[in-house]
């Protein structure tokens, strides 16, 4: 959405025009770590295929093209907003659209707006009608106006802007208001913003409209039919009011709306009009219980809209209550303790609009103050994070906004002021600050002090990784003889040189790596003569010299994707790329996998996983030993794991009755209703498994009873035998393995980021132990990796189109 605001008189709060776009972005992830993990791989996948049963769900083009905002706006434009009526005394009778008082004032205002637009030389050509929808204390009148643009005049749409509408309203309403017969109208503030026409409703329309009064005790409202599916093409609205002097808090206990916010969404406003000038947030998707949506108004009104198309989900259940306005906006204060913390109001709920808070921190003389944001989300659509001209946190004279994974700031004296400002539109989760007084002579006792004030372990200095995030830990480092000195001062292992991955960050490790003039590089970095390219023979070990060759189209080789009708496709990663390469469409079948129903922030390696973040992860329990190995869901009846979990000197590991599987599990100590426990019917280990080399370390597990796919239980995608995992690409290992060598298994499911390592480099490190059925992943210089107890669990990599594809972890 976009908005324009024009105000005159009064407080002068809106003297500029502001454009907003309703987009949200996600924050970056952290690097993970050490060691080489060897993972079992692609060629055995063909043996698995016969056991897989996949349901392919395709959404037709008709549904994909249903009612986005842009399709509505191409023929119909709606502008909604509010106006302040200075000479009309507010009365509760105006809350009822059926009262004669409401209808009289609404009729007069609509007449004035109608005259205004019909006299405008441009707007009059397309103007349809104006509607007054509500009144509130202030006295504020809420309105919308509709303009219909014929196909032949589509190019005129940019001229029908919010500014043009606001100027016309301001001029026309004042002129008409002086002559109004039944009321003396004097308007001070007028807003109008472009609005999804699906949110425009008549004030007396009863279809899916609810007027709610908030009180101090919680009340509930739900989407239609919840917990069943909401109706298709719903246009629902909840007007919530509270007594004077109170604000409104709404907490969504469950929330499942279609993923695409252009089609289905919940939009919440600090107003009784869907005016983006006063938008609090617009949300869609499936929210996990660990990340609920909670919003607070600045005053005693709030508007909640539900807009849907033909795709149906379960919707939401929400509770609402009235809270004192002072409590809603209370923030700031004086802090004198040597350590402490504070947050934005209502954290981790969304902070209210229209806030100005100041915290003053004072510590003993001779000390300095370090503040670290453990959470920072002050995002607003369309805001330049370098200017931060809307919502912001201000420290040491600099404004911060957007989303940051880490933010550490230090004072130069023993006092520090932290300011927080939110304007009237769009709020977010806010922030949490931990502050500490420190000795400026020794700011990080026993650790390395980053320039920002952040403290890291001494061994992380000059380890080749930007742990400080400002590179201060990697400056002035001396590389040893086994390291490559990057142009930017980083030290990287010599193995990384010319591996076709930009490990230095400035690409200096990949310079001067070209093959000879008459040579070409293979995908694994080897050089071959140019005449070998597309000669019908696999001269590169990875077959990259014959991939995507025109002459090779339809010709089968070891690196071809084979369709169900035996047609061969010579294209890298042809399966599930949302393009039909097979004439029978089989390359795009069975692709309803590798999807996480819950929405999550981007992954940060080496930490607790969230609920439903890895829905294909399974915990295998052996007898009374608890968690022993991991597995992955590949269908509702089959799991994939490692052979070595079951081939042990003790034959008891091959007995199915000794095992239990737990799907949808996050915490080993909490097995609630979302966890699905199953027994094993069959254990099939690969007959060629070699315990000395770990070759063919794969097993199939058949469940006694099928799984029910839910938000926390979902299958992972298996790659085609020819799938290429590019060196340097980020993948993730998950499991309940030990957090350190010799330690106990983790209670909470862990996740860690690793990267795919070039086969040539991996064979050098492992002295040739990697077979064609394996791939290497990890970090050669140390850090987080899979540990004992992660065996059999997934190594997952995300495809170009977003699905997660798995390998098997071997420890």
Automatic annotation (TrEMBL):
SUPFAM superfamilies: LDL receptor-like module (SSF57424), SEA domain (SSF82671), Spermadhesin, CUB domain (SSF49854), Trypsin-like serine proteases (SSF50494). The keyword Transmembrane helix applies. Its main location: membrane. Residues 208-323, 331-438 form the CUB domain. InterPro entries: CUB_dom, LDL_receptor-like_sf, LDLR_class-A_CS, LDrepeatLR_classA_rpt, Peptidase_S1_PA, Peptidase_S1_PA_chymotrypsin, SEA_dom, SEA_dom_sf. Residues 75-197 form the SEA domain. GO terms for cellular component: membrane. It is found in: Membrane. Pfam families: CUB, Ldl_recept_a, SEA, Trypsin. One of its GO terms (biological process) is fertilization. Residues 603-811 form the Peptidase S1 domain. It is a single-pass type II membrane protein. The chain crosses the membrane at residues 34-57. Signal peptide: none annotated. Disulfide bonds join 450-468, 462-477, 479-491, 486-504, 498-513, 515-527, 522-540, 534-549, 556-568, 576-591. Keywords: Disulfide bond, Glycoprotein, Hydrolase, Membrane, Protease, Repeat, Serine protease, Signal, Signal-anchor, Transmembrane, Transmembrane helix. One of its GO terms (molecular function) is serine-type endopeptidase activity. This is Zmp:0000001114.
């Amino acid at each position: 959405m976009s908005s324009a605001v024009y105000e005159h008189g009064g407080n002068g709060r809106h003297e500029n025009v502001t454009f907003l776009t309703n987009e949200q972005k996600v924050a970056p992830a952290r690097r993970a770590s050490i060691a080489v993990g060897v993972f079992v791989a692609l060629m055995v996948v063909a043996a698995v295929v016969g056991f897989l049963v996949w349901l392919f769900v395709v959404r037709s083009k008709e549904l994909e093209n249903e009612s986005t905002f842009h399709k509505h706006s191409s023929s119909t434009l709606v502008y909604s907003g509010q106006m302040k009526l200075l000479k009309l005394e507010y009365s509760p009778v105006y809350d009822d659209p059926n009262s004669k008082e409401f209808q009289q004032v609404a009729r007069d205002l609509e007449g004035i707006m109608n005259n205004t637009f019909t006299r405008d030389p441009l707007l009059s050509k397309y103007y349809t009608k104006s509607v007054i929808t509500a009144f509130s204390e202030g006295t504020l009148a809420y309105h919308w106006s509709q303009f219909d643009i014929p196909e032949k005049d589509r190019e005129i749409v940019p001229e029908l802007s919010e500014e043009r509408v606001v100027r016309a309203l301001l001029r026309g309403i004042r002129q008409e208001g002086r002559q109004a017969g039944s009321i003396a109208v004097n308007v001070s503030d007028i807003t109008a913003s472009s609005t999804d026409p699906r949110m425009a409703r008549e004030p007396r329309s009863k279809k899916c409209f609810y007027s709610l009064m908030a009180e101090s005790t919680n009340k509930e409202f739900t989407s239609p039919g919840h917990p069943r599916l909401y109706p298709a093409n719903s246009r629902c609205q909840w007007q919530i009011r509270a007594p004077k002097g109170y604000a409104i808090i709404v907490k969504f206990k469950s929330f499942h709306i279609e993923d695409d916010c252009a089609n289905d969404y919940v939009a919440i406003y600090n107003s009784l009009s869907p005016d983006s000038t006063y938008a609090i947030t617009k949300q869609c998707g499936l929210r996990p219980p660990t990340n609920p949506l909670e919003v607070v108004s600045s005053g005693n009104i709030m508007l909640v809209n539900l807009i849907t198309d033909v795709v149906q989900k379960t919707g939401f259940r929400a509770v609402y209550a009235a809270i004192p306005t002072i409590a809603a906006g209370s923030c700031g204060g004086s802090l004198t303790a040597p350590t402490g913390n504070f947050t934005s109001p209502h954290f981790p709920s969304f902070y209210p609009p229209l806030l100005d808070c100041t915290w003053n921190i004072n510590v003993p003389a001779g000390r300095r103050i370090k503040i670290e944001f453990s959470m920072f989300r002050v995002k607003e659509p369309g805001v330049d994070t370098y200017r931060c001209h809307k919502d912001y946190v201000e420290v040491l004279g600099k404004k911060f906004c957007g989303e940051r994974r880490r933010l550490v700031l230090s004072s130069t004296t023993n006092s520090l002021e932290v300011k927080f400002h939110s304007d009237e539109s769009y709020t977010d989760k806010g922030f949490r600050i931990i502050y500490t007084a420190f000795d400026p002579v020794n700011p990080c006792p026993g650790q390395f002090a980053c320039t920002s004030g952040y403290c890291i372990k001494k061994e992380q200095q000059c380890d080749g990784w930007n742990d400080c995030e400002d590179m201060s830990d990697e400056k002035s480092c001396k590389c040893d003889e086994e390291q490559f000195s990057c142009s930017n001062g980083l030290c990287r292992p010599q193995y990384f040189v010319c591996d076709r991955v930009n490990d230095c960050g400035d690409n200096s490790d990949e310079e001067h790596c070209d093959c000879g003039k008459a040579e070409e590089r293979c995908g694994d970095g080897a050089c071959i003569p140019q005449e070998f390219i597309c000669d019908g023979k696999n001269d590169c070990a990875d077959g990259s010299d014959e991939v995507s060759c025109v002459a090779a189209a339809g010709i089968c080789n070891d690196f071809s994707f084979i369709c169900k009708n035996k047609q061969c496709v010579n294209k890298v990663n042809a399966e599930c790329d949302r393009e039909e390469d097979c004439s029978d469409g089989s390359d795009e079948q069975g692709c309803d996998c590798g999807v996480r129903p819950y929405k999550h922030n981007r992954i940060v390696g080496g930490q607790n996983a969230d609920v439903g973040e890895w829905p294909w992860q399974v915990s295998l329990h052996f007898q009374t030993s608890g968690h022993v190995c991991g597995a992955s869901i590949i269908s509702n009846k089959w799991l994939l794991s490692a052979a070595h979990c079951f081939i042990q000197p003790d034959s008891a590991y091959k007995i199915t009755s000794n095992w239990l599987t737990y799907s949808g599990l996050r915490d080993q100590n909490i097995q609630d209703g979302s966890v699905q426990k199953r027994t094993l019917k069959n254990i099939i280990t690969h007959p060629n498994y070699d315990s000395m080399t770990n070759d063919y370390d794969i097993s199939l597990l058949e469940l006694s009873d099928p799984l029910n796919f839910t938000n926390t239980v979902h299958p992972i995608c298996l790659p085609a035998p020819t799938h290429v995992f590019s060196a340097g690409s980020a993948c993730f290992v998950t499991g309940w393995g030990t957090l350190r060598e010799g330690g106990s298994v983790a209670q909470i499911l862990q996740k860690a980021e690793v990267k795919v390592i070039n086969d040539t480099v991996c064979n050098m490190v492992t002295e040739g132990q990697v077979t064609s059925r394996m791939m290497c992943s990890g970090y050669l210089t140390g850090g987080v990796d899979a540990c004992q107890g992660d065996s059999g669990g997934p190594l997952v990599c995300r495809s170009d189109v977003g699905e997660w594809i798995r390998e098997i972890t071997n420890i």
